Amino acid sequence: MALTGRAALLAALGSIPVGILEPGWTGILAVNGPLALACACDYALAAPVRRLLLDRSGDTSTRLGDTADVTLTITNPSRRPLRAQVRDAWPPSSWLSGTEAEASRHRLTVPPGERRRMTTRLRPTRRGDRRADRVTIRSYGPLGLFSRQSAHKVPWTVRVLPPFTSRRHLPSKLARLRELDGRTSLLTRGEGTEFDSLREYVPGDDTRSIDWRATARQSAVAVRTWRPERDRHILLVLDTGRTSAGRVGDAPRLDASMDAALLLAALASRAGDRVALLAYDRRVRALVQGRSAGDVLPSLVNAMATLEPELVETDARGLTASALRTAPRRSLIVLLTTLDAAPVEQGLLPVLPQLTQRHTVLVASVADPHIARMAQGRGNTEAVYEAAAAAQAQSERRRTAEQLRRHGVTVVDATPEDLAPALADAYLALKAAGRL
Q1: Mean of the per-residue pLDDT values for the chain?
Q2: Virtual CA dihedral for 163, 168, 170, 171, nearest 10 degrees?
């Protein structure tokens, strides 16, 4: 039983000393009879809190940056009205900084035998699962002199999904895909694509596409046109090791890699290709495969929601073995990892031939825009030294990328804002060239 501010004031006016009546119980030793009686009645008229029935409903998922509404239903089975202050506690990352006190605390009145609902609005600041903590209810008497308090466990989980900010690029990439797919006047021609139709030769066409048999049957020279093949297999491999934890701006590199992977998955599924996901560092952290075109994107988003960088060095051999098991037939393997010299030269390059022998490999990496800004600095001695260090770092990344290209790997190195569209463009270029 807690002594309220109003009770403290009345105690002072009535000359009532405050003390500990028994371990864990704070109350009043009264010498003023009427005031003591008022306090006892107020406590007796406060609704009991341990018998309250609590239940939750509402949102079970939201995207990072959006809100989620979770409703708490409180049923009062007693014969006394419940006048309560309620605190619905969640982890600190469930709120924007400074908003927890206002969003998690509620006042409500529940008549006897009735129920009331209160809604807590979450605005998570991190991906992953946010689990409700305890609900603390403080029940007051009609005079507000004393209160009863108890905590209840009411489980609920809200999964915070990746924001997929690169979705805005999808319409322009789909327009390019339709061009490659022969739905507009632009048609691609080349080995490894599906035959589409015949049309009249125009200057500039590849003479190898001339269909001589069709030309012999008509008065004009006919050329064959192709459309990109469908039902290709694409494996997205997220490196969740130590290097993915490095922060670029306000987020780790892993978040930018996931955003780029989601855009590519959305584009490839619209193109009729099959998309799978493997997240790996020293063991498999997530695996999504065998999903239909309509289900692949929700499955990837859900699997990525709980992924966090692991502060361990990625096992390149284990990653390669897992990728080969996941993609038993010829596929495009998109490896989202670092271009730092040491992890690539000591880990990836020795095992890369195992991948390139059977598959087409594309490596995508997140570049730090701060390095590019440092390279432009010339204002003072410190800026010059920083520019020299940045130029050296850029030179090492270019050298590492060139080593990968000599092994037949396509390399995409871009800032977090540019990585997703650049990766989508690289996929479309490979598709247009018939290399998938």
Answers
A1: 85
A2: 150
3-state helix, strand, coil in the chain (%, to 5): 40, 30, 35
Q: How many CA atoms lie within 13 A of 338 on its CB side?
A: 27
Q: Is the pTM of this model over 0.70?
A: yes
Q: Is 259 helix (H, G, I), strand (E, B) or coil?
A: helix
Question: Using CA atoms, how far apart are residues 278 and 330, in angstroms rounded to an integer?
Answer: 16
Residue 173: name the closest of 386, 354, 429 by CA: 429
From the list 273, 415, 288, the residue with the least C-alpha distance to 339 is 415
Structure tokens at 179: 């061009």
CA–CA dist 46, 142 (Å, integer)? 7
Alpha carbon 54 to its chain's center: 31
Residue with tokens 């004009």: 220
Which pair of tokens denotes residue 130?
Answer: 């946010």
User: Cβ atoms within 10 A of the Cβ of 320, count?
Assistant: 22
* Secondary structure tally for the chain: helices H, strands E: 13, 23
Q: What tens digit of pLDDT does each residue of 30-86 get?
A: 445 676 777 777 778 888 999 999 999 999 999 998 999 999 999 999 999 999 999
Distance (Å, whole) CA 425 – CA 144: 67
- Residue appearing with tokens 């598709």: 431
- Three-state secondary-structure class, residue 31: coil
Sequence-ordered alpha helix ranges (H) in 310-366: 316-326, 341-343, 349-356
Contact between 162 and 262 (Cβ < 8 Å):
yes
Based on its alpha-carbon atoms, the radius of gyration of the chain, rounded to whole angstroms, reads 32
The pair of structure tokens assigned to 282 is: 């020293």
Q: What are phi and psi of 276, to 5 degrees?
A: -130, 160
Give dist(CA 237, CA 288) in Å, integer.
11
Contact between residue 33 and residue 82 where contact means Cβ atoms under 8 Å apart: no
* C-beta separation of 209 from 223 below 8 A: yes
HSE-up of residue 55 (Cα within 13 Å, Cβ side): 7
Is there a contact between 436 and 229 (Cβ–Cβ < 8 Å)? yes
Cross-strand pairs, 106:
86
Question: Shortest CA distance to 52 belongs to which of 146, 158, 148, 157?
Answer: 148
Judged by DSSP in three states, 306 sits in: coil
Residue 102 CB partners (closer than 8 Å, separation 6+): none
Give tens-digit pLDDT for 154-212.
999 999 999 999 999 999 999 998 887 654 434 444 444 555 567 777 776 667 777 77
Report d(CA 61, CA 70) in Å as an integer: 10
